[in-house]
Amino acid sequence: MDLGLGGRAALVAASSSGLGLAIARILAAEGADVSVCGRDPDRLARAHAEIDACGKGRVLSTVVDLRDEDAAVAWVERTVEEFGALHIVVTNSGGVPFGPVGDFTVPEYRQAVNDNLLPHVSLSLAAAPHLIEAAWGRIVMITSESVRQPHPGSGLSSVARLGVLGLVKGLVHHFGSAGVTVNVLAPGFHRTPILDEQYGSQVEERLAEVAMEIPLGRIGRAEDLGSLVSFLASEQASFVTGSVLVADGGNTRGIG
């Protein structure tokens, strides 16, 4: 199936590793020009090479700390300057410490909002005039299954990421007449480097335990999520906006 992404200009945040990198790789394979960012120059350079090998489109990599609003906006402007337009924006952010809600102080919650929510806001607002000018656009915000099913061990994430849903609902009306869609993708457990860091030497045993609780019986692959993003960015998804798509192997049991 041709997703209609050839020649489109895409920006993927927090894309030097993990889910962001997988998303960038698949968009590149679909023929899009892809702008990526990360905080570690060496890791970003490796990601650039991987993405560049996936397709014929151009790849732009920029060292950016998305917690710096001015740097995030400058990255968007540089992407438009290099590619000549902007059509697809995948907002993403780094993780926050694990632990129940009672384990953190108010300053730590404030930091979580700054790290996990505000990058989505700054990138979306910076991209808005360019998407409207193109009269075609897709914003996909990567959050977590915690926006649908808060997890006792992910207190900071469950609180900070919920603000993304309010942002999306407002942007749906802001963008609707311009042909720009805005959706949330809420992944559950996917195999990424952050899980290896979290579980350390016990990672395989712990992930096997997690997989036993998931109806599909396995942890997600990073490319699974990348494929979903490419669909939401496609021509075929032009009537899907304001939605929250949970990708967690059936782990979220709630209705609604």
Structure description:
It is a single chain. With 256 residues, the chain is α/β, with parallel strands linked by helices. The chain has a single domain (9-191, 225-246), classed as Rossmann fold (3-Layer(aba) Sandwich), CATH 3.40.50. Helix 1 links the parallel strand 1 and strand 2 (33-38). It contains ten helices and seven strands. It has a seven-stranded parallel beta sheet with strand order 3-2-1-4-5-6-7, sandwiched between helices. The protein starts with 8 loop residues before the first strand and ends in a 9-residue tail after the last strand. Helices cover 45% and strands 14% of the residues. The model has no long low-confidence stretch (mean pLDDT 93). The longest helix has 17 residues, at 118-134.
